[in-house]
TrEMBL record:
Xref: InterPro entries: Acid_Pase_AS, His_Pase_clade-2, His_PPase_superfam, Histidine_acid_phosphatase
Organism whose genome encodes this protein: Chloropicon primus
Entry protein name: Histidine phosphatase
PANTHER family: ACID PHOSPHATASE-RELATED (PTHR11567), LYSOPHOSPHATIDIC ACID PHOSPHATASE TYPE 6 (PTHR11567:SF207)
GO molecular function, one term: phosphatase activity
Transmembrane segments: none
Alphabetized Gene3D superfamilies for the sequence: Phosphoglycerate mutase-like
Length: 325
């Protein structure tokens, strides 16, 4: 556990928020391996930060999820005001996916997939780190300025709550609402979205067939039997959905520091390896360049174009971009 104070916010967290990518055109103070000295001849022009949401409640109601008391979702800090808008400054769209999730409430108060208090503090800690790195050195203005910051999030409650935490850590004294841009489910490109791409939907369907053929061949039969016993899966349930089972077991362990039902370290690790491999087959396939391109190609293209515009001096306003997936 890490304890400390972020401005006026006390915090206790187990892990920092997932900073997947922080790309910089150049560092104002960069230590080089050859020189071993601080570089002062480079100019920082533009920063892109891409992050995942913080710790959350499970996305599944199966595998005993309702048997656990989910009492981890209280408000952890006082958030800055935000203004959530659709693309091109339209009204915030309705997310049917988010509505389906948030209408499910577990015992204890957490909603399905909701950002927990620990997840909120993870985001707050990341925002404070960004403030120390980019506000304290003068790259970003000391007070929130809309012309210096662009924020984009998927239209899901836990991701919007996460980026709100990051913004609170970045500009804890902001008085004006900070704008967060999002879009409707069908147009989203910050995650592999088969809803708006027929070809990606076809490729994912083919991948599911491949995984099902592997399962039918008995590739994970022994693991399935162990999980059925540990998670008390009814005899009528023929097969285990590994990603779903891992989600429930991992979120229970992370928030309660106790294994779910009859799970143990070894079995959870075995489940993790299979679940990760199956998820990777859809979001980061090594055997299908077309599927990979259709999944994350536009995200990487946007990041690259932002850096190229900044390097060429064509970037009109924004110097710092945060994208929440």
């Amino acid at each position: 556990m890490i304890g400390g104070r972020l401005g006026n916010h006390a915090y206790v967290v187990g892990a920092s928020a997932g900073l997947l990518l922080a790309q910089q055109l150049a560092l104002m103070r960069e230590t080089t391996a050859e020189e071993g000295t601080l570089r002062r001849d480079l100019d920082l022009r533009f920063v892109s930060v891409v992050l995942r949401h913080g710790a959350r409640a499970p996305l599944s109601e199966n595998f005993g999820a309702h048997d656990h008391k989910w009492e981890y979702c209280g408000q952890a800090y006082h958030a800055v005001k935000t203004n959530i808008r659709g693309l091109d400054n339209t009204d915030r769209p309705v997310s049917q996916s988010d509505e389906r999730q948030t209408k499910v409430v577990f015992e204890g108060g957490c909603k399905k997939g909701q950002l927990t208090s620990v997840g909120q503090l993870q985001a707050l800690q990341l925002g404070d780190w960004l403030r120390e790195r980019y506000v304290s050195n003068g790259f970003l203005p000391p007070s929130y300025n809309a012309s210096a910051l662009e924020v984009r999030s998927t239209n899901i409650s836990r991701t919007l709550d996460t980026v709100t935490g990051v913004l609170t850590g970045l500009y804890p004294d902001a008085e004006d609402p900070i704008m967060i841009e999002t879009c409707d489910d069908r147009r989203e490109w910050l995650y592999p979205n088969h809803r708006n791409c027929k070809r990606l939907s076809q490729l994912m369907a083919q991948k599911r067939v491949t995984l099902e053929e592997s399962r039918m061949a008995g590739s994970h039969a022994a693991l399935e039997e162990k999980l059925k016993t540990a998670l008390e899966v009814p005899a009528s349930e023929r097969h285990i959905r590994f990603v779903e089972a891992y989600d429930v077991c991992k979120t229970v362990l992370f928030h309660s520091a106790r294994h779910h039902m009859k799970m143990d370290d070894g079995l959870l690790r075995e489940l993790e390896l299979v679940a990760t491999k199956q998820m990777k087959a859809f979001v980061a396939p090594e055997d299908n360049a077309e599927m990979l391109s259709l999944s994350i190609g536009k995200v990487l293209q946007d990041l690259l174009q932002g850096m190229e515009r900044a390097a060429s001096g064509k970037l009109a306003r924004t110097t710092h971009r945060i994208a929440k997936c």
